[in-house]
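Standup notes
- HV: blocked on the assembly model, inputs below
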Amino acid sequence: MPAVIELENLVVRLGHRTILDRLSGALSGNCIGLLGPNGSGKSTLINTLLGFYPPLSGRVRIFGEDVQENPGCLRSQIGYMPETDAFIADMTGIRFVRYMAEISGLPRREAMERAHEAFFYVGLGEARYRKVGTYSLGMKQLAKLAQAIAHGPRLLLLDEPTNGLDPEARQRMLQLVRDIRDTGEVHVLISSHLLHDIEECCDQVLILKDGHVAALCNLEEERKANLKFLELEVSHENGFLDAVRGLGCECASFGAGRLKIVLPDNIELGQIYRLASDDTVQIRRMNYRRDSLEDIFLKAMSGKTEMRGATNGRL
Amino acid sequence: MAVYKRTYKAYHGQLTPAWSRFTVLSRYGFARLFASRMFTAFTVLCFVPFIIGLLFIYFLHSSMAQVLLGMQMSTALQVNNVWFSVFLGLQAWLGFMLAAWCAPGMMSTDFANNALQLYLSRPLSRPEYLLGKVSVLVALLSCVSWVPALILFFLQASMEGHGWLFENLWLAGAIVTSALLWIAVVALLGLATSVLVKWRIAATALMLAIFFMLPGFGVAMDLILHTRWGQLFNLTYVLARLWASLLRIPPPHGGRLEPVPLWSAWATVFFVCAVSLWILNRRLKAREVE
């Protein structure tokens, strides 16, 4: 898949502080997650993609075009939902979205039509004639999404889209993002520090740490490639531990019958049950899981160097 | 995407020309201003002197109308540079009140609502954003200043005949230049205050203070330092000084003081415009970075 966003030794400096330091990588997923702790440079990267901050050195390309060379043309293909409240309070929702669509280049009639459609799409159809200033926080977030998609962008930049939303509204927002992603007509880049949001929507993730790329990976491949873990609590370990090791599993004991076993791909769970039965070991608790995004994130955060496979692009 | 389907669909239709995007801001700006009935009524009021001017010129040249109305217009009454300077002066004050009404809120609301990032994340540059906003003020102030003055000028030329137009062609240029100078100062200052203060009322107060309180500071400076340069703090005086030169009328007197040199008035106007543009350039950013 051709890269949507290409970063080439990107350095962004604000004041006397280097915020993004030699970022490189190609992002090509349908839905790209931008992860990192607060202050890691996520919003700065989005602002640089929009051309708000000029890079000190290096390049940023979107759909193969340099952001600094042709910002006008690129921006007409981008929809941006900012993190902070951003709207025109004394306009009705529909007028606000229509206004924004017209600035993006849509003729009046089409802008009006698509503003209505965008409002219905995000679920604010009934509130479209109310002034934006009277909307609740959740409604404002949806209105921001509506203005970002009304002109039909090819790339959607969502900066913390679930900020301040209650669980129900958050689920609705994530569902909308997934729906948009699944149309295949638009690439989505979501910046968030909520791992769960990214995990639910994204197929590729870029993790930033202190302005550096801490990890850049394809989530799906990562999940497949990562090992399966078993966390067990057993009545006694006598012989059982050695038997498990005999199968070719890595195994660690934490005392009091608590074990952690790494299952290679060729070992089935049933074999562990059989061993336990043979050794008359009672399994009191079993937790079976794969590496989650949280593990990937924590590894990236604890790693001193960039975690990116040179050949396969995986962690 | 059809409403009933409620699915996302990209837009593949026609786009408006890139150069015309700033006109969207102007159009919405006008719509927003004229949504207020008070503002609309006041704008209509600004054309009353123009109507009176039209009637005056007509009656001055129509003996039939004078007879019908039983009026005898004095032959001493003339439509000349002095007459146009009075008309422009009156229109300038009315226009200033219009600008004080609408200019401060033009950008301050966008700043208060963090809307600038939404504008600038679209195919709209900072100069285009400024152009969109300033064009509303320029069009509005033009409609109450040089446009009616030129209409009166050509009406007078057509009714006077005998080569009046060619003898006074310089006056048409002077009217347009004088009005444009005033528009530049008022519009840029208004927008600069609008970006400095997010609260519309405070922005209006700041604009009025620049025009009405700074002259007081200038008078105090003149009295204390025994100088005449304090008059340069009075923007109304400075503009009147330039108008006097352009319209070839005697310069205004600041009380007992001598008028300031013409070059200093030009320099003041350029300085005010330059500072306003500098403020706008500093503040008109999608993101604030210190």
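- HV (later): unblocked. Chain B has a mean pLDDT of 89. The two ends of chain B are 43 Å apart (CA to CA).
- Next: hand off to the docking folks.
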